[in-house]
Amino acid sequence: MEVFTSIKGLRSLLDQQLSEQKTIGLIPTMGALHEGHISLVDASIKDNDVTVASIFVNPTQFNNPEDLLKYPRTLEADCAMLEQAGCTAVFAPSVEEMYPEKSSLLINFGTLESVMEGASRPGHFNGVGIVVSKLFHIVSPHRAYFGQKDLQQVSIIKRLVSDLAFNLELIVCPTIRETDGLAMSSRNRRLNDAERNIAPHIYRILEEAKQSLLAGKDITETVSAASNAFNAIPEFKLDYFEVADVKTLQPIPSLSAAGTNAICVAAFLGPVRLIDNVVF
Ligand SMILES: Nc1ncnc2c1ncn2[C@@H]1O[C@H](COP(=O)(O)OP(=O)(O)OP(=O)(O)O)[C@@H](O)[C@H]1O
Ligand SMILES: CC(C)(CO)[C@@H](O)C(=O)[O-]
Ligand code: BAL
Fold this sequence. Notes:
This protein is an alpha/beta fold. 41% of the residues lie in helices and 20% in strands. It has two domains: 2-173, HUPs (Rossmann fold, 3-Layer(aba) Sandwich), CATH 3.40.50; 186-274, Pantoate-beta-alanine ligase, C-terminal domain (Pantoate--beta-alanine Ligase, Chain: A,domain 2, 2-Layer Sandwich). It has helices at 7-19, 35-47, 65-70, 75-85, 95-98, 116-120, 124-139, 151-163, 193-198, 201-214, 219-231; strands spanning 2-4, 24-29, 50-55, 89-91, 143-147, 169-173, 236-245, 261-269, 272-279. The strands form two sheets. It has a six-stranded parallel β-sheet, sandwiched between helices. A three-stranded antiparallel β-sheet has the order 7-8-9. α2 links the parallel β2 (24-29) and β3 (50-55). It binds adenosine-5'-triphosphate, pantoate and beta-alanine (BAL). The site of beta-alanine has 3 residues, from loops.
């Protein structure tokens, strides 16, 4: 496995592979890798000749400076995991390599970003849109892999691919969870032991809300019961709990066809903000 910090170095490998008609899979990440990321790498290795994982903590998508400062960075361990998984190449550029000049691009995703993560983290999806576009241009993958854990990000990137006519296939992979249900996330490393023990309540409350909706309970009542469940655990500070259409991400008044309904949650546990969702 080769590790590249320069765009030029990575391109020379990829140009060679493309000249041999090889297919390329890209897994964009911010590092601090876990089994969730590796599941995307595994999927790419099955589908493609060449698998590139990028590791870049993208400053333009952080609206909270402390979140950026404290984001876990574990490049050496990440590379060992990727090598073990069978990844072909890692692209781990510096901020200067990705942003030689401060980017002045503005990408507006309209109603897709006016809710949930977009509403709580102003500018977040502009930064995601910029960096993912750059990664798509740099790597020119045939396929790109994203996790359902970041459900709104998936919708945003689908729109980006369509609006900017990126010639690639987006593959969405299911959320990988710890045995107690907690969605794997790099930010879980920032939880202390007490917070880590409480964190699985996020998925429990999501699942209870899903069961209650499937049993015919009203959405407003279900959301209110879920908020109460979070408020009953003083360590949590609920940011949002939304029942939405999985494509438009807009709140829905009642459930629709199976597979089109989503419940999305963001909650602070101490200083750490975690997100999760279920689609049903
Ligand atoms: N538990 C998971 N299961 C499947 N995919 C995941 C999981 N966690 C993250 N991913 C996906 O991995 C890619 C890179 O995500 P990222 O590097 O931000 O990791 P993360 O664990 O989501 O970290 P954090 O949410 O703390 O930023 C994204 O497409 C994301 O959806
Ligand atoms: C897609 C991504 C790597 C862009 O920085 C990031 O938002 C993430 O890790 O989900
Ligand atoms: N996993 C989404 C990237 C972020 O939280 O900034």
